[in-house]
Give the backbone structure.
Amino acid sequence: MFKNKNDGKNNLCGDNIRKLRLSYPTKLSQRGLADKMQLIGIDIDKNAIQRIECGKRFVTDIELKAFAEIFEVSLDKLI
């Protein structure tokens, strides 16, 4: 099976999403972030957030755009 060359991670943004989540003014939990994503129409749960943050899950472009909107950062800042 093919292994990603990015230390085996399936995304580049997981670490940055975690840092942004923890530095959010109200220090969002993973569940809180999933709730915010659902409010803007992205069907995602706490477990998916956890898998994104640790690099085990791919992130779609639509999800990436939603994360940028929630954290009020550019897409470049997430990657």
Observations:
- Residues 61-71 form the longest helix (11 residues).
- DSSP finds five helices and no strands in the chain.
